[in-house]
Write a structure and sequence with these properties.
Distance between the termini: 42 Å
Number of strands: 3
Helix content: 10-25%
């Protein structure tokens, strides 16, 4: 049995809170899609090229975006 999640299914971080204050993401066609969990599938979807998503993720991991939450 594989433990790798299906990239076409919506996923959220294991670190997200139970109150729904998080985002979900998935791979769809040639994009990574991101949506707000609180919208229950009815809100807007942000579509990013895989390279753009990778760049954003690297910036978030390195602390480049920390000023947004201070």
């Amino acid at each position: 049995m594989s433990t790798t999640p299906d990239p076409t299914q919506w996923i959220k971080s294991d670190r997200s809170s139970a109150n729904g204050s998080c985002v979900e993401m998935r791979q769809h066609a040639a994009a990574v899609e991101v949506r707000d969990t609180k919208q229950h599938g009815h809100g807007p979807i942000l579509r990013l090229a895989p390279a753009g998503f990778a760049s954003w993720l690297a910036g978030a991991k390195s602390g480049e975006l920390d000023h947004l939450i201070r």
